[in-house]
Amino acid sequence: MPPIVLFGAQFTLSLLAYLLLGSWYVRPRLARMPLPDALSALVWVHVFRVVGGSILAPGSVDPGVPSEFRTMVGLGDMATSALAFVAVVALRLRLRAAVGLVVVCIGFGLIDTVNAVIQSIRFDVFTLPLGLNWVIVTAYVPALLVSSLLVVLELRSRSRWDAVSAGSPS
Fold it and tell me: Which positions ≥6 away from 115 have C-beta within 8 Å?
């Protein structure tokens, strides 16, 4: 089986599994929570995006994986992780800027993910040994995408916006 077909199958199955988990179990539970708490639960998933930085570690991937690709992926994931940390702290403290920080984190993370997918095709990295990074991309990235989707759905729920403004300090 060509590596890109294996990747596509694994990624798709993981994405479907997370979508079902998100719709059947996570979303109904989040609906009963104040918006800052619901967003915090979803953004915590992105805090652990720091694992994407493992691509920068010596020997973590085949030497044939271009350093430009490794740097872009690793630093993008680390930056998204840092933004997620800031966002969850702001949510916990009920700061007015919290929702904006969540939007920045999720927006940056989505742009980084789309760019990483485009660059992985450009550099044809799925034909090279990726080690643990293969698992990160096929099992964890779909969770990040579903979490991002759930954040967007929570933010679109207008009736929940009042929970932020009512519980926020100036």
Answer: 72, 76
pLDDT at residue 133, as a whole number? 92
Amino acid letter at 94? R
Q: Which residue matches tokens 């990160």?
A: 136
Q: What is the pTM of this model?
A: 0.89
What residues contact residue 126 under an 8 Å CB cut-off, 6+ apart? 3, 4, 7, 120
Looking at residue 163, its amino acid is A
Decide if pLDDT at 66 tops 70: yes
Q: State which amino acid sits at residue 137.
A: V
How far apart (Å, rounded) are the C-alpha atoms in residues 165 and 169?
8
3-state secondary structure 59-94: CCCCCCCCHHHHHHHHHHHHHHHHHHHHHHHHHHCC
Return d(Cα 146, Cα 158) in angstroms, integer: 20
Percentages of the chain per state (helix, strand, coil), in multiples of 5: 80, 0, 20
Neighbours of 135 (CB within 10 A): 12
